[in-house]
Design a protein that fits this description.
The structure holds three protein chains of three kinds.
Chain A lengths: L2 E10 L2 E11 L4 E5 L6 H9 L6 E6 L2 E2 L10 E4 L11 H10 L9 H14 L15 H14 L4 E5 L7 H18 L2 E6 L2 H7 L2 E6 L2 E6 L1 H6 L4 H6 L4 E8 L2 E4 L2 E4 L9 E7 L4 E4 L8 E9 L4 E7 L4 E7 H7 L6 E6 L1 E6 L5 E5 L29
Parallel strand pairs in A: 3-8, 3-9, 6-7, 7-8
Antiparallel strand pairs in A: 1-2, 1-4, 4-5, 9-10, 11-12, 11-14, 12-13, 14-20, 15-19, 16-17, 16-19, 17-18, 20-21
Chain B lengths: L21 H30 L4 H9 L1 H34 L5 H8 L1 H4 L2 H12 L6 H6 L8 H12 L1 H14 L2 H8 L4 H30 L2 H7 L9 H10 L3 H28 L1 H13 L4
Chain C lengths: L10 H27 L4 H8 L2 H34 L5 H7 L2 H4 L2 H12 L6 H6 L8 H26 L2 H9 L4 H30 L2 H7 L9 H10 L3 H31 L5
Helix pairs in contact in C: 1-13, 3-8, 3-10, 6-8, 6-11, 8-10, 8-11, 9-10, 10-13, 12-13
Classes of the chains: A alpha+beta, B mainly alpha, C mainly alpha.
Chain lengths: ~400, ~300, ~280
């Protein structure tokens, strides 16, 4: 079942949680609402569920207006951040709850309830824990029970509020992958809220990046990571290095960085900032005078698949991630001046949220490491799917 | 962290099946208020109505009567002895229970709760059985001309017994929750025992202390059953205010009985107000102790 | 367990004082009670505590206390719910007033209730006309014991209600439960341990209650005498041993109740999960 929200606004007292938000979720997709605290993502989720009412706007399920409909009638499954399991009931009774509270006519027979609950517990791999109480389970197990419980009523839409937020890192990763596989199996339209960008990028079909009550960008994980529509999206989805300066007469002059920027051929200067990801920066010893800058190496962190370099220029720090072999070939020393040249820079002009991606002149291809960095560089400004 | 505002700030009407329908709500409020009015307000009103039944001057003369005055004096004396003593005990007991480990600690804790568990009459009986004429120590006391039961000392002792848990019960969970780190830090810095107590421990417990003292005092001044057993009911000598009320009532002097009772009622209302104030000001302190009491883990 | 090195001063002084105080005030007098009761032979003891008049007082004391506790259980739940979940004018005052039975001297409560329910009282008169006798009848004892127990159920339930996870109610509703189903299947079971504890506490307090009851009960032997009164009566007749015997029975009941209440609280904690 597809979900659409149109022009949703919601305030709590003087705090505006959602400002004119619109969004479409096609049937069967797994969508992530990603953003920092206060971005409005949980408020939006709860409005879709019917747990809160919007001040303005509408919610449509499969084209039908459900804004006024009570949460009971919406056939949504909701999984809470802290599980909200019924403490006095066993795991079995928790999962069976939705079936037991149905009006007599719609209630399945006891044997039917038993087999359904049994199958669900098997699906979440907890069938051996049916008689336990929630207090006797681990966090990951409780979350799976919460999921099974939500699925028991065969919802048209599955909504998850930071489902893995309270769990250890390792458990979180396992459950993440498990959720993805589950979704591939049952294909229920699902929306989940998270502040963890890694989680969103790894699990979702599409990512909705939200900030301060607005949608900043909607796109596939690759799109939002690689072609961010706003500086916020870019910096939220990973580390960035920022270079401030201006653009004029077809050139970008950001600190010591200079390169061609035909998108702004006017002589009139405009303030701008360029953003480069740490793995899209080249480091060398010769300055071929192609618009890079000199920086001093301050620190190296070699633990991990990529080697992380900390450099410093007159304008501030720069973070670079190099593949291991490149680092070993370079063999830099602390304190050594190195030549730094970004291979991809996204430029955002002051007052304009749209990004233009510009190559640095004569950019050699980046080696190994991140598959996204091998994506061909485009000179066309990317237009993001924004709220209507 | 999402803003805490989410579901709690919504008005009841918005929340659909998440709260009761309005008629149900109002009915429940009505039942609750009706029940409380019936059992609490009506008797309260009765006290004052009866007290002033014969007018203000009758009220005043009942209150100013010599026997009433001695009752007031005895009540004040009793509370004046019992409350500080129990305060001292409460602080000492909670200090050693909260900061130390020693054998028999659990026994001490259970014993402290004892007066709450037993009937006030029994609380008085035990002193009669100890100090009465045919009690354990009776002959010895008679031989030395010391009168405890059916005299003022007995009244004071019985009052101490029924009120001693109040301060300790407030302080123990609080001090357990607070732990000993601050005091240990002070010790490392070279502070002596008294200084540690005055400067470090006391500020952390002052609201709970006050709360315990208020409750202790209310009970000390109002205790009836235990005191009734040990007092001997000698007018003008061994009658506290509650006992004086009983005497007047049994003599069918209702108006005077209620007049004196109204004094105690005013004391009760003042206690309630003081209690609310302390709860409001010391909310965090009291809540920390309450959490331990509910969870019970620190015991 | 290894002997812990106590860093802070004052252990011997405070512990010594506490033990001394407890002994003087509590242990020794209690010992005197038990000693006195053991001065009777078993046969004598039995005779005293099973005397018809005493048994009648047991029936009244425990029966009325039970009824009062149940009444408080029902209405106390409503009061606690209303105080925690709803807003209305004067709520703070009502909340403070719930503690009145704690703060008011029992003798004052006793005469006030008697005045209200006596045959010529505000409520006693119309009830009398309807054929219901409250004062000087067992019903009056029930009224007094209900009064005395009001704070117990309300104050035990309030913190539990306040801590109830609203998300659990939302979960129930999202799964299709009506408000009543949510209340009956989710909220009430969560409240059960605290509710039972409150009722048990009210009951424990009520069986020992004296001051609020002796005025309204009328103290008619075999009909409206409560057990604490009988103890008093025996004392006044210098039958110390008899008084001690009945006191021991009541003490036994109190300790049994205390133990049960501790069990209840342990049971309640069984369901709590650490977040």
């Amino acid at each position: 079942m597809s979900i659409e929200v149109r022009n949703i606004t919601k305030s709590f007292g003087s705090f505006t949680a959602l400002k004119d938000v619109s969004l479409r979720v096609p049937s069967g997709e797994l969508v992530a609402l990603l953003g920092p605290s206060g971005s409005g993502k949980t408020s939006l989720l709860r409005i879709i569920a019917g747990l809160d009412r919007p001040d303005a706007g509408s919610v449509l399920f499969e084209g039908e207006d459900t804004t006024r409909r009570d949460v009971r009638q919406r056939r949504v499954g909701f999984v809470f951040q802290h599980y909200a399991l019924f403490r006095q009931m066993s795991v079995f009774e928790n999962v069976a709850f939705g079936l037991r509270v149905r009006p007599r006519r719609q209630r399945p027979a006891e044997t039917e309830i038993r087999s359904r609950v049994g199958r669900l517990l098997q699906l979440v791999q907890l069938d051996w824990l049916g008689d336990r109480l929630p207090s006797q389970l681990s966090g990951g197990q409780r979350q799976r029970v919460a999921l099974a419980r939500a699925l028991a009523v065969e919802p048209k839409v599955l909504l998850l509020d930071e489902p893995f937020g309270s769990l250890d890192a390792k458990v979180r990763q396992e459950l993440r992958r498990w959720l993805r596989r589950l979704h591939d199996e049952i294909h229920v339209t699902s929306v989940f809220v998270t502040h963890d960008q890694e989680e969103a990028l790894e699990v979702a079909d599409r990512v909705v990046v939200m900030n301060q009550g607005r949608v900043e960008q909607v796109g596939s994980p690759q799109e939002v990571f690689d072609r961010p529509a706003t500086p916020f999206v870019m910096s939220f989805l990973g580390t960035v290095n920022m270079f401030k300066g201006r653009v004029e007469s077809g050139k970008a002059l950001l600190g010591s960085l200079t390169f061609d920027y035909p998108e702004h051929p006017q002589a009139e200067a405009r303030e701008a900032a360029g953003y480069a990801r740490p793995h899209e920066i080249e480091v060398g010893r010769d300055d071929a005078d192609n618009g890079g800058l000199w920086a001093t190496l301050q620190g190296v962190n070699a633990a991990g698949s990529l080697v992380k370099l900390e450099l410093r220029t007159g304008d501030g720090p720069i973070q670079v991630h190099l593949p291991r072999d490149r680092y070993e070939a370079l063999a830099p020393r602390i304190g050594e001046p190195l030549y730094v040249r970004p291979t991809r820079v996204r430029v955002f002009m002051e007052g304009e949220p749209e990004a233009a991606v510009s190559p640095a002149a004569v950019a050699p291809p980046a080696l190994g490491g991140d598959p996204l960095s091998a994506f061909p560089v485009s000179r066309v400004p990317v237009s993001a799917e924004r709220s209507a | 962290m999402q803003p805490v505002l989410s579901s709690k700030a919504a008005a009841p009407t918005e929340r659909g099946a998440l709260t009761e329908p309005a008629p149900v709500r109002w009915a429940l409020i009505g039942v609750a208020l009706g029940f409380l009015s019936l059992f609490l307000l009506v008797p309260l009103a009765a006290v004052f109505t009866q007290a002033f039944e014969k007018g203000v001057s009758a009220y005043l003369s009942a209150v100013r009567e010599p026997d009433a005055w001695s009752a007031i004096r005895l009540t004040l004396l009793t509370a004046g002895i019992a409350v500080p003593l129990n305060l001292f005990f409460g602080v000492a007991a909670s200090w050693c229970i909260a900061k130390f480990e020693f054998p028999g600690k659990n026994a001490l804790l259970s014993l402290i709760d004892l007066p709450f568990a037993i009937s006030p009459v029994i609380s008085g009986v035990i002193f009669v059985l100890l100090f009465g004429r045919t009690g354990l120590l009776g002959p010895w006391l008679a031989g030395h001309g010391v009168k405890i039961v059916f005299a003022v000392p007995g009244v004071v002792l019985a009052t101490i017994f029924v009120t001693f848990p109040f301060v300790a019960r407030e302080l123990i969970p609080l001090m357990q929750a607070a732990g000993s780190e601050e005091e240990e830090a002070a010790r490392v810095l070279g502070a002596g025992g008294w200084r540690i107590f005055w400067k470090v421990t006391l500020p952390n417990i002052k609201w709970a202390l006050l709360y315990g003292v208020i409750l202790c005092n209310a009970r000390a001044m109002g205790e009836f059953g235990a005191v009734s057993v040990v007092s001997g009911h000698v007018r003008g000598l061994t009658n506290t205010l509650p006992l004086h009320v009983e005497i007047l009532y049994n003599e069918y002097n209702f108006q005077a009985a209620f007049a004196v009772a109204s004094l105690l009622t005013l004391l009760a209302l003042v206690t309630l107000v003081a209690k609310s104030l302390v709860e409001w000001r010391g909310a965090r302190q009291l809540a920390a102790g309450e959490a331990v009491l509910q969870g019970g883990d620190a015991r | 367990m290894a002997r812990r090195h106590n860093v802070l001063p004052g252990l011997s002084m405070t512990l010594g004082f506490s033990v001394l105080y407890m002994s003087l005030i509590v242990l020794i007098p209690l010992a005197a009670l038990v000693l006195k009761a053991t001065s009777l032979t078993w046969a004598q003891f039995f005779k005293v505590v099973t005397d018809p008049r005493v048994v009648a007082s047991y029936r009244l004391t425990f029966g009325a206390a039970f009824l009062g506790a149940l009444l408080n259980g029902a209405f106390g739940l409503i009061v606690a719910w209303v105080l925690v979940r709803y807003q209305f004018a004067g709520k703070r005052v009502v909340d403070a007033l719930v503690d009145l039975p704690f703060a008011l001297p029992t003798a004052v409560a006793g005469i006030a209730l008697t005045a209200v329910y006596a045959p010529n009282g505000w409520l006693g008169a119309p009830l009398q006309a309807a054929g219901i006798k409250v004062a000087f009848a067992p019903l009056g004892v029930v009224v007094a014991l209900t009064f005395i127990g009001i704070p117990f159920v309300v104050r035990t339930l309030q913190p539990v209600l306040e801590d109830l996870d609203r998300e659990v109610e939302e979960a129930a509703v999202s799964l299709g439960a009506t408000r009543w189903q949510t209340f009956a299947r989710v909220i009430l079971p969560a409240l059960a341990p605290a509710w039972l504890t409150g009722v048990a506490l009210a009951f424990a307090r009520a069986i020992g209650e004296y001051g609020s009851v002796v005025f309204i009960s009328g103290n008619m032997p075999m009909k409206t005498e409560i057990t604490p009164l009988l103890i008093m009566a025996k004392l006044e007749n210098y039958d110390y041993a008899g008084a001690a015997a009945i006191a021991v029975v009541m003490l036994g009941a109190s300790f049994l109740l205390l133990w049960g209440i501790n069990l209840l609280q342990w049971w309640g904690r069984r369901y709590s999960t650490a977040h």
